[in-house]
Design goal:
By secondary structure, this protein is α/β, with parallel strands linked by helices. It has a single domain, classed as Ribokinase (UDP-N-acetylmuramoyl-L-alanine:D-glutamate ligase), CATH 3.40.1190.20. Helices cover 37% and strands 22% of the residues. It contains eight helices and nine strands. It is globular and about 45 Å long.
Length: 268
């Protein structure tokens, strides 16, 4: 059988984040990639210029087309900009009994542009978080989900992750990339305890799409049959290497993308 993962997310016209980052990640990690596009963005390495939401009935049609034909092993969910989109995705997941759902609660782009309407946060909390195997917020996203200030320490990260568990999540990977210090620390928290994943923090200009890439790398691991902790560990390793190699790329004038194919492209 071929390992298949689907990404349900927005399109990034510059290719560094969103659907494009997810498809690159799945492909780089040896998983067949399918997609459901929820929004079109006009963006580049310097920011988001415009967003066009895909109509809800067409999102549903994409979900039905993919899941009725492909044996999907894992699902990555990214940008869902409004409440109606969240509602139709939740119904589609239930309709097709989707499994191994990785929810990346995308709210703000690397450039600072808002990608989730404020009134859609409650829909995210009630309709999607309880359906996910793992939710992967960064520090600002976890804070927004809870109405708190961003965590400033590992103990506060764990506290906020447990609060997201209280919303109904089965497990939470709270990501410390927005924090400080020499290490970039992520905590995977579930009912059984806490697993710490750390890597040396890399001073790189090109980090666009890092959150999308991590969540899709986790989904790729789950699609290949890995347990969640192993999938997270492999994903952390992959993203760290993609960031370390990113400045070898010369893409745009702002925050460029990770090097998704760092292990595959021939070195110059």
């Amino acid at each position: 059988m071929t390992d298949i993962a689907v990404t349900i997310a927005g399109s990034d016209s510059s290719g560094g984040a969103g659907i494009q980052a997810d498809l690159k990640t799945f492909s780089a990690l040896g998983v067949y990639a399918a997609s459901v596009i929820t929004a079109l963005t006009a963006q580049n390495t310097q920011g988001v210029c415009a967003i066009h939401d895909v109509p809800a009935d067409f999102i549903a049609a994409q979900i039905d087309a993919v899941f009725s034909d492909l044996d999907v092993n894992a699902v990555k969910i990214g940008m869902l900009s409004r409440t109606t989109t969240i509602e139709v995705v939740a119904k589609g997941l239930d309709r097709h009994r989707a499994r191994n759902i990785v929810l990346d609660p995308v709210m703000v782009a690397t450039s600072g542009d808002r990608l989730l309407a404020p009134d859609a946060i409650e829909a995210m909390r009630t309709l999607l978080i309880p359906r996910a195997l793992v939710v992967t917020p960064n520090l600002p996203e976890a804070a927004a989900l809870l109405g708190h200030a961003p965590a400033r320490s590992e103990s506060e990260m764990e506290e906020q992750a447990r609060a997201v568990l209280g919303i109904g999540a089965r497990s939470v990977l709270i990501k410390g990339g927005h924090g400080g210090g020499q290490e970039s620390i992520d905590l995977l928290v579930d009912a059984t305890g806490v697993t710490r994943f750390s890597a040396t923090r890399i001073a790189a200009q090109n980090t666009h799409g890092s959150g999308c890439t991590l969540s899709s790398a986790i989904a790729a691991g789950l699609a290949k049959g890995l347990a969640l902790k192993a999938a997270v560990g492999d994903a952390k390793t992959y993203v760290t290497a993609a960031i370390a190699s990113a400045d070898a790329l010369k893409i745009g004038r702002g925050h460029g993308p990770l090097h998704h194919f760092h292990g595959l492209w021939r070195k110059p």
